Amino acid sequence: MVDATNTRPIEDEVVRDFRTAMSYGQYLNLDQLLGAQQPVSEPEHHDELLFIIQHQAAELWLKLVLHELRTACEHLAGDRLQPALKGLARVKHIQHTLTEQWSVLATLTPTEFAQFRGFLGRSSGFQSYQYRAVEFILGNKNAEMLEVFRHDERAHALLSGLLGRPSIYDEFLRHLSRCGYPIPAPLLERDISRAHTYAPELVPVFRQIYESAEENWEAYEACEELVDLEENFQFWRFRHLKTVERTIGFKRGTGGSSGVPFLRDALDLTFFPELYAVRTEITR
Question: Which N-terminal residues, if any, form the signal peptide (predicted)?
Fold first, then answer.
């Protein structure tokens, strides 16, 4: 029965004294977290808080994506495929959340954004080092990008480190090789500081896996997980593009890019091209 006062009594066992116990706010560092939103517009514009929280939330999710992808790479290097796939499954859910977040930012009208955009100076999402780190660990490396982060020792060190480490695709191909699949030697010995580019000689290997899926189930499952990962990344890129187009049209980016055309070019970038190319070759 509902209490006539429309209140729920607090149970006696609920902890009330936090003089010696750690509280929820302390565990999450909420004072620091909730104090990190510092609008710079003068006078402060109402909608700038939305803009800040949108991007800060994305950075938190990107931190978790990096955490999961780095661990997945370690699992692949140790031929622990199932834990690696478990990590990728979590990343896919995070990707869905990141993509859906754009719908919140899309409520920011061009007029509203124009009233505080000028206060952003040269800051831009292009400078998100965690986003670039995700691109690097997925295999789309670009050493030129490091110059953008020359001013930030921590970011530069992170990206430099990932530039010299195998991507998740490199680790997957090495894993397949150790499992007896005929991965071409040049792909196993390539310069891992450069972006992976389409290797047609790899397509027959994946065709074998796909056309005999039951005999190659673990490899087959892993291939499809990677395709999901790339597809989700492209959905994010596209939603980013359309949100920017909706909000600022074809203005140049605050960081100096051409804006929408620059974002559109990113849709042509790929992580695992052979996993798409093989679909044209499959006959059974």
Answer: none
